[in-house]
Amino acid sequence: MPEGTRDVLPAEWSRREHLRAQLSALLLGWGYQGVELPALEYAAHGHPLGDRAFKLIDSGGQVLALRSEFTTALGRLARAHYPQGPFPLRLQYGGRLWLRAQTSELGRLREFTQVGAELIGVATAQADAELLALAQAALEAVGVNALLEVGFPGFVDAVLEDAGVHGEAREALHGAIDRKSGADLDLLARGRGLDREVTRTLHALTDLYGGPEVLEAAAGMAQGTRARAAVAHLREVAAHFGGPLLYDLGVSRRYDYYTGLTFRAYVDGINQPLLGGGRYALEGGLPGAGFAVGLERLVRALPPGVPPEPETVLALDLAAAGAARNTGLRAELAWTADEAELRAYCAARGIRRALRGPQMAAAWEVGA
């Protein structure tokens, strides 16, 4: 099969579908209505992942792309079907994504699955806090305890602007700050002729990681209007959220895409986030924010046996099969009267019991 793709076997499929159903039910309970989006879309200049999307040409010569992320498609859906709202618009989605090259996804998959939520049409601290609370509730619902890590890429850009760093130098420094590479910062600062005070500020940005004390340190660095507004917004979001948060205000990736707060969630043993999202502006200026959960990563984060699998039995007739299913068991129907063949199959499948009749009388047990 092509590199970056894989087969999903029954045990993983079952766990993944269970998680998908749990997440969807939780999102629906918070008022996030489900939508389904086409896997094919028009290839468009300026698409955030356009250079990494699979492209193909249809019979009319139109260049199409396989869906590489959901946010752009949801923006199109909102403009087409809800031009006047009502806002806020709460939507949930789930499905496959495809990328030609994906080095950051678990196992470098080029085909993977996400479930997510979007809150469109409002841009308040309360809305951001709602998404943080929803993200935390989603992980807790499937048995994952993880602290949310909050960033604000525009804060780094605002501090660089206040320090008088512009153009190509600012772009290069964004990357070095996001990588938290002190050596690269020093090299870039010397190459651009930045003074010692600015260089100290750059290094201080990479250290803005931790609890509420990070906001205090950021407030001390915030000189201009944009930087001060970012800190004030984060404080307001934290007050509405009310729970513990980690802050990484040295996050600078995609600062030209995200217009405000970003967040991720990590668990031990997996070096990529289970969940990630943030605030952005849709085409036309409509505000939006949301997050997505990677189901492949989520399956890997859960311990074996979560969720618990119901017992599977072998039903020797339809009456036993129906009765077993009514009690919550999984029932496979016998296809032959050859007991030796059935016993061998059960042993290979890990099925312990064979049942007969509407009372589910035990006909025999494997190993007995």
From TrEMBL:
Pathway assigned in UniProt: Amino-acid biosynthesis; L-histidine biosynthesis; L-histidine from 5-phospho-alpha-D-ribose 1-diphosphate: step 1/9
Entry function: Required for the first step of histidine biosynthesis. May allow the feedback regulation of ATP phosphoribosyltransferase activity by histidine.
Note: This function is generally fulfilled by the C-terminal part of HisG, which is missing in some bacteria such as this one.
TM helices/strands, residue ranges: none
Superkingdom classification of source: Bacteria
Pfam families according to UniProt: tRNA-synt_His (PF13393)
Stretches assigned to the Aminoacyl-transfer RNA synthetases class-II family profile domain: 1-302
Complexes and interactors: Heteromultimer composed of HisG and HisZ subunits.
GO cellular component: cytoplasm
GO biological process: histidyl-tRNA aminoacylation; L-histidine biosynthetic process
Family named by the database record: Belongs to the class-II aminoacyl-tRNA synthetase family. HisZ subfamily.
Entry GO MF terms: glycosyltransferase activity; histidine-tRNA ligase activity
Record keywords, A-Z: Amino-acid biosynthesis, Aminoacyl-tRNA synthetase, Cytoplasm, Glycosyltransferase, Histidine biosynthesis, Ligase, Transferase
Residues annotated as binding L-histidine: E69, F70, T71, R100, Q114, E118, R253, Y257, Y258
Principal location listed in the UniProt entry: cytoplasm
Name of this protein: ATP phosphoribosyltransferase regulatory subunit
Localization per Swiss-Prot or TrEMBL: Cytoplasm
